[in-house]
Amino acid sequence: MRTGTAHLPLHGGQAPRWLFSRMVALSREIVRVMVEEFGPVEVLERLSDPHWFQSLGCVLGFDWHSSGLTTTTTAALKEAVKGREADLGIFVAGGKGATSRKTPAEIAAAAERHSIARPAEELVYASRLSAKVDNTAVQDGYQIYHHSFFFTPTGEWAVVQQGMNEGTGWARRYHWLSRNVSDFVCEPHAAVVSDQRGQQVLNLVAEESEGARKTAALLSAEKPEKLVAELKQAQELSLPGRHGILVADIRPESFRRTLLKTYEHPPADFEALLGRAGVGPKTMRALALIADLVYGAQGRDSLSGGPPHLRPFHRDAPRGGQPRQSGGQGAAQRAEEAGAVSGGAIT
């Protein structure tokens, strides 16, 4: 489950070399004592607590309440356990920017050198899905640019990752812990710690978004031309300024290319769709909007924006939340049979 988030001002620059070297030395001793006293799993549990992690960064000497605390503290921890993974029972993969994209290779390399109870493929999958949930299924305005993956020989794992919103000048840190994870795409977040809320946040992992998840997966298996036509129609709609559609930046041709892949190899469910290469925030946003407009979805709010009486409907769509009729056994009929008429929640 995701165990919490933290909100931090986005600052540039980097920690001085003299400070970072001290952070590495001190974090190594802190981790060593914790492992001896409580075991490596407890270290992961502590790292998954946003308050404890913030305190750790301050204790290590990075006592600025900025985005750099996340990247510098995780980098210090990674350097601290390097070469001592077998003794400490803790492995660290990933990091900031381009280093985050090395996470799968680093997990696989660790699994080759050491005995890990869980297959490396499962750990790589957990790493990828946790990042995709916070970057694609939950679109809160923060683009993930840092991803650190901690794991133990027994297969327990934790994630500390961070996204940035350059428009507001803030960063948001997300914490995950493998213990008790039962569903990546339905309420995986155990807590949220934040002083700010977005005005338009697409949350496809909310419990009430179950219908939207089913519908998005079904729509992704439809013929691309049909969905591209729906997208273009949605982009032509005119709404009050306070109810943005948030799809103006989606290119129909790029959307079509992604849908060709899902049409040829339909995903089994929403989690499979989310994990599919090439399915990013824009594709998911477009699918959520089409599901809302075509099916008359009624969530807490939706990408079409505003209360129900201000939401646009196709002229031939019934108002009762039922999908409009189309020929054959299309997504509309299959979604209705599956009870999938519901919308993506806005938090």
Structure description:
This protein is an alpha+beta fold and 347 residues long. The chain has two domains: 2-197, no CATH class; 207-346, no CATH class. The chain has 13 helices and eight strands. The protein has helices spanning 17-38, 40-47, 50-59, 68-81, 85-88, 103-113, 120-137, 210-219, 224-235, 252-264, 270-275, 281-295, 331-337; strands at 2-9, 91-96, 138-139, 143-151, 157-165, 170-177, 202-203, 345-346. The longest helix is centred in the N-terminal third of the chain and has 22 residues, at 17-38. The radius of gyration is 22 Å and the shape is globular. The model is unreliable at 238-245, 298-329 and 338-347 (pLDDT under 50).
Short description, anyone?
This protein has 347 residues and is an alpha+beta fold. 43% of the residues lie in helices and 13% in strands. It contains 13 helices and eight strands.
Number of helices: 13
For the record, the count of structural domains works out to 2
Mean pLDDT: 82
In terms of quaternary structure, the protein is: single chain
**Computed CA radius of gyration, to the nearest angstrom:** 22 Å
Q: What is the count of β-strands? A: 8
SSE map:
Elements: E1 2-9, H1 17-38, H2 40-47, H3 50-59, H4 68-81, H5 85-88, E2 91-96, H6 103-113, H7 120-137, E3 138-139, E4 143-151, E5 157-165, E6 170-177, E7 202-203, H8 210-219, H9 224-235, H10 252-264, H11 270-275, H12 281-295, H13 331-337, E8 345-346
Antiparallel strand pairs: 1-6, 2-4, 3-7, 4-5, 5-6, 7-8
Helix pairs in contact: 1-2, 1-4, 3-4, 6-7, 8-12, 8-13, 9-10, 9-12
